[in-house]
């Protein structure tokens, strides 16, 4: 069955098709487009209209455009609308309207993508699942995910993010979730907000999109929990809490490493019933995210025992805390992004693992506003630092952590991550367990790329 046909897409967007067509997918990128996709000519860094001819040459079923490009024939299969982004949003809205399954929305300062992937694993075996393959959580990513959603989807998981005030509510209204989960509130993008309370209010706007009688799943025990609770109640939501203590509906307890050091055994409790499951991760913060997933699924009436069992198949997405062996090194690749909360979680994960030495390679945490200097220096006093042997730093902000560290833990510092990639011999030795973490803009992921280089791996074989 096609995902979209010309008449249905035309009604949804108010656009005009130049002829009949049917599409089996939706794409915004000619580098990954598949034959039969509807190409959406968004304008971002470059105007998507410049790539319509290429998309059609690669087998696109049609293109969503606001004008006929000069290098495209007027009778080419096009859906012409006034504004392409508005057209994509309308297509996403129509995709949501025709779907009769359950929609889950996920937001939070930390762990959105990891939690989205946990839902994918937990729901396997319980019908058809739809979720974005990447972190498509912004003004074009959410409608794209909805536009790609098959009508017979049983469960859809929609990740919703923000970097500025006012971004979450319209995306939540577009997604119309049956349940909305907030993973946690932490100082991410805090430079654009008036403190943590401002972030909490923005995240809580996700509840404005809930369907009538929908469920709000919120973390308990935070200073901002009352803000989330007030917003959920104002939306008329059924409220479930999750956490490690108090009267949460679902409580995570006793996450611990097993013999391999790379698996967590977790116990959760809901309505007096206990669930035990394992995660392929050493980070206790992942255990709490998993509890949030189960709390959400309990609100939707899913099979919790099966969901808990299937969570054992989940692994952290690339760059978000996955543990792997590189020669005689053990690498925790957490280089996709960072803020103070996720940085402390990453350091805690490193502290739990064994190795000849525990070594952290850290890049700047960005978008923290006026408190950015202190936030970096304060990491030196994190309890996990007591079990970390050496810290290498990259970036002008991480210089403040470097200076605050005791001399015996102070490794190399470089103005940029590139300054560390050719000094691996000085930084590491066989048997080390290594955490690499920083904001995406710090480019500390280049250290991970250098470590994965075949030549560099050979240096750390331990032979």
UniProtKB/TrEMBL annotation:
Where do the Mur ligase C-terminal domain residues begin and end?
A: 329-439
What are the residue boundaries of the Mur ligase N-terminal catalytic domain, all occurrences included? 23-69
The protein's matches in HAMAP family, at most eight in alphabetical order, are given as: MurF
Q: Which domain of life is it from?
A: Bacteria
Instruction: Outline the extent of the Mur ligase central domain.
Output: 106-296
User: Which family does the record claim for this protein?
Assistant: Belongs to the MurCDEF family. MurF subfamily.
Q: What is this protein called?
A: UDP-N-acetylmuramoyl-tripeptide--D-alanyl-D-alanine ligase
